[in-house]
Give the backbone structure.
Amino acid sequence: MSITENSPCKIYIVDDDEQQANLMQAMTKTIQLETKIYTSSIEFLKVAVTEHDIVILDLQMPEKDGIEIMRELASCHKKPNFILVSGFDERVLHSAKQLAESKQLNVVSTLSKPFKAKVFIALIKATHEKCLENYLKQQNNPAIDEDNQNSPTIEELKLALRKHQLIVYFQPQVSFNTSALQIAEVLVRWQHPEKGILLPDTFIPLAEKHELMNLLTEEILMLAIKEYKKIIAGGLDIQISINLSAQNVSDLSMPEKLEGLLKHYDIDPKSITLEITESALMNKVSDSLDILNRLRMKGFSLSIDDFGTGYSSLVKLYQAPFTELKIDRQFVLRSVIDPDSKAIIKLCILLANELKMKTVAEGVESKEIWDQLQSMGCDHAQGNYIAMPMPTDEFILWVKNQ
Ligand code: G
Ligand code: G
Ligand code: MN
């Protein structure tokens, strides 16, 4: 049996044990998914796999083992979605997964042999749906393609700042308990005259590299304040959260500047949460603590963003006066298919509760994820299941329709 040649998300089974491979193929067949089997790892390495494909990979194989396969694929920038299978114990699978992730390879899940058909089928089904969805998303929005040859230059970005081409969207965060809207995150977009709406991933790293983040953040703050004023004028009583980058938390005068700006527009810092990524705290620790403490004293709430993806220690989390912990979407998205992600979320919530911090899950994309995180005691949800990021007018309408 071969997979449909034109399927955008192909499924490969790479296992030297023919019987085991046939069994897995028969299981996926029950949900109408075709697969292609490779019992030779060397043969498999010749395949042009894409980032949308799924590779069910046995770790233990004679010619080249699973770890070698992942290394070779990573070295030629082939990054499919792996499901690792092994007869070894869980720890081996777990560390193989860590290794893969250190090479920026995506391991969707791991399975110890023998596994239950039901578990395997559910995993393949969920993974296939997710891959297909990502493929469609990329088709509809080529700007998120990392290899996009069309990526903007720093000169274009500087011009965009001068011509005020940046805009802000709002994405609601609601309470898991009451579904009530609490706060909206401000997310920047670039309304490019030719390329359309560009996402921050295409220009924030560029701005960071060229030390343009302070200028960019000033512009975003101005936009956020103006739009927030419109939201308040629209009769809504909500708060907003704004993202800061590492370069913003190294300027010692930033808390005073920000306070002055808000005073000018008659906005109470208590209505504003500042989101700072874990990796931003890696810089000069004493400076960032100085800045964060003064921001907190002025009344701002502070959120640690993308928690779990950086390298910050528990000590740092304890030292900095954060009021909120945002669980990174990579864990949230996988919480319903990957027990390790679920375990990490559990720990994040426990830790946040101990430190009297609020928890926010980002990437709540489905009812399944909502139910999962709700049952785990997370406080607030943000994600496409609730609403996508929206321009101000659309956001106000959305709130009024709730
Ligand atoms: O929608 P989303 O693609 O908006 O955002 C992608 C990433 O870009 C997020 O992780 C977010 O933290 C970051 N980002 C979005 N808006 C801003 C912003 O205004 N400032 C900074 N520093 N980062 C932002
Ligand atoms: O700054 P931060 O990483 O918190 O920004 C949130 C990011 O998550 C934005 O890029 C936003 O577009 C994205 N996002 C929000 N909801 C969802 C979701 O349900 N699924 C996915 N994949 N991304 C989401
Ligand atoms: Mn954020």
Notes: The two ends are 50 Å apart (CA to CA). The chain has two domains: 11-140, 152-401.
